[in-house]
Amino acid sequence: MREVRDSADRRLTPVPGDQLTTTVQQSKDLMSSIEVEPAECKDLAASSTVPSLDGAAIAMGLSTDAASGMVTALSLMSGLDQAALAKVSDPSEQLEKCSNMVMTAAGVKVAVAITRIDGVSGVEGTTAFRTETTLPNGQVQSVTTAQAVHHGVVLTAVASGGTDGAGAQEQAGSLLDSAAALIK
After folding, report:
1. Cβ 110 vs Cβ 99: under 8 Å
2. What is the spatial distance between Cα 175 and Cα 125, in angstroms, rounded to a whole number?
3. What is the pLDDT of residue 126?
């Protein structure tokens, strides 16, 4: 993970395994308390924040751009079965079906819109999308996700925060490209 660099040529900071396991479990617990409409979109809503670790080895690294406030994360998962890899390889149907969702947590409803993005990464089979969550106060939080299966490894790059949507796309794509170049 330390060999992967973000678009500003910064090395990622690896997340220790025990911290990663704890964080994933806390996120799963949080997602289980959230209602998603349409209901069949809950898996997609959860997958952008909680990677599925069932039977997988995972590594994660983080990078923060202090100037813009953008945080990027890269996760690498291996050891998934063919069904799981196929689901990651072509999420088109789910992205289309779930392009507009409503998530409810503790009685607060937020609108979530998902827009597919093309040309984010040079890694073959990359799927990228922007998730925009409109909070009750009207503020919009944007997260860009780029994901691909490369030599049986699921690569997922996520960029959030900051104010530059194009910068988030560039950062997510750069992380995916950098990680894929290291996997032979």
Report:
1. no
2. 15
3. 92
